[in-house]
Design a protein that fits this description.
This protein is mostly beta strands. It has 10 helices and 48 strands. The radius of gyration is 31 Å and the shape is globular.
Amino acid sequence: MVQRISFLLCLLFAQLAYGQDAALQELQSQVYQNQLKIPREKVFVHSDKSTYLPGETIWMKLYVIDAASHAPTVISKVGYVELLSGSEPVMQAKISLEKGSGEGSFLIPSSIATGNYILRSYTNWMKNGDPSLYFEKTISVINVSRNIKAQQQVRKSYTLQVFPEGGNMVSGLENYFGFQFTDEYNMGISGKGFILSSDGDTVARMETFKFGIGSFNFSPKKGVTYKAVMPTTDGSITSAMLPAAYDQGYVIHLTSQGKAVIIDVKASADAEGKPVYLIGSNSRNIVCAFKQTISQANARFTIDMDKLPAGVNDLILFNELKQPLCERLYFKRPEKGKGVQLKTGQSAYGRREQVVVELDTDSALYAQSHFSASVYRLDSLQMSPEMNLEYYFWMQSELKGTIQEPDYYFETASAETDQALDNLMLTHGWRRFDRNTTLADKMPSFQYLPEPDGVIVSGTLIDKRSNQPASGITAYLSWPAPAAKVVNAVSSSDGRLYFPLKDIYGSNELVVQTNNRVDSFYRVDLDPAFSTHYSGSKIPAFRVSEDLKKVLENQFLNSQVQNAFYAEQALQFRLPDNLDTSAFYGIPDKRYYLDDYTRFPTMEEVIQEYVNEVRLTREQGQPHFQVVNLPYKKRFEKDPLVLIDGVPVFDPAKIIRFDPLKIKRIDVMARTYFWGNVINDGIVSYASYEGNLAGFELDPNAVVVQYEGIQLKREFYAPSYPTPEAKASHLPDRRTVLLWAPELKVNSNGKIRLQFYTSDVPGSYQVVVHGITDAGQWISSKALFSTK
């Protein structure tokens, strides 16, 4: 597969480079090497609804795709999810991914404050990039047991932002601008304003077009500064300074004419006769490459719209020194494929009645796919519209900031939506280039590795004598447990350590150490597991009106009743079926269960009496282990690797002094064992009854931290009423989330069939289904029904 992709890329470059000069070919290659060759991932999170009360569960399904192929990722097996209040994490979890999808949950605690929160998600690999490209959505929590009114008072405020098209302003050239005008809730608002120069002249007027976004143009003068001014209906005035204009440089302007995308370049006099290059890319592919020469301060690039792929296309202008000059995004709407519709058996249902919902698909296309579905009650609390997976991956995942009503840009193509879409690219796709940056030939470095097999714990090994990173030192990381995990790593030239840990679930301690007998001058500083960088997105302030009081009271009652009667069912967790519980060394040569033998009071007696593969010796009064090398029928001279619950013990005396009554099992590997960079003269592994070290005293230089592994999967519980007797049950059913199904499959007839029962809570209910195929086809569909 990799060879085929490489061949196609070479063929693409060959086609693009035909008839081009060497400079353009070299620039294309460097753009690809620097920006496109590196795999990139995107995340989407389907949550069961958008507003919660304490005691309720946020049910989540993660979809992680490769940005280029649009297919489920093969890079990452772990997804990270956080519930944030500003930049403060409230809840965090690591979710196991299989073929780019995984499921998780957050149980909302009773201590949480009323407000809006950000649900964000990413992979370890994505932590190398801009946090504004992590998945983010707003989740509302209402805690009726705490004062809500105090959180309703939000000071009225406005924000005005101005974005020069392409990135910079240049004096004496006609410059185009996008702008955005938002309120205290980060929502776009209408307005009319003007551009005021430092000379006191009004040089341009501006008016919002859609969602508080608009555009204008004017020619700035050298040495003059400019300010955007926007009056508001309440009599206040909001202003924003425009960036300082350069005396020399380039500006660009994008327009669409028929089936062509036009990029007009204007340049100052010093650029006359010089070449400029336009490179277009989409995800990880070069989609166009052109060269023009500045003539009479102008150049024009014409791009065939039919040759541009769907989605966001990144168009960058370079000069002859390979310096990026300007950037502009162009969005091409994807063609509407075959509609996939949800069908309910009827539009209205009674109390505790079975509902059947079907989704018809093309069975051949969707046979290998992942789907998730939620069914929840629509009321005045569920204010945020459900994100559309297709629209998110096509547009929102490529842009910065909050996109207001993204459906608007997809549902209907018209002159109005085209203009609004272009304004969106002007503002949310804006980036200002450093004019002194030159495209480098070297590949970028990465601090965070992809996680193709499970969690990777990383850190830096520090020499305590100099407090500087140290290289070439072996460190050991252990997850003490009944199914203990232990790995080793050698520090790199900059002291970095990477420990791959597969199949670790739940919360446990991590023990990190070096061999204190030979490397006692070192410590390991572990990296935070979750990203410490934030997008800076404004969380819309929480607001709830007085007319919601009755709705809140009813919903709180529903939640309390469900927790009272179904708490046990709601706390069911499960481990993966294929969980690997074997030791890292596999099947030992000999295993001793100590309860099968006479129990001796000292560990020395245990070894001497019946662990025949191990001999205890003493040198200068210090105990040492010697293991039999079975293949050669002779004993090793050096100490073996000694472990207790997966934690290496480098001082044999500590094991000898330990109480054998706390040990359940001893494993012996009676042969040379090659373990990463370490060669062991056998292994002697002790296991306590609970796998928790049983009070064994660790080396004081060891680092011990509490660590959250992969989240255990929580089972969604919903009662069923297949018989009249079940339907007549006196147990209350106050569910407002009727179904959460995170892993649906297409049956042999090409259909997805949902079956569930209504509750005792009447109202309008929404069915939401998202899905993705192994080939990279995306699905989002909705349906409504009511209960009475």
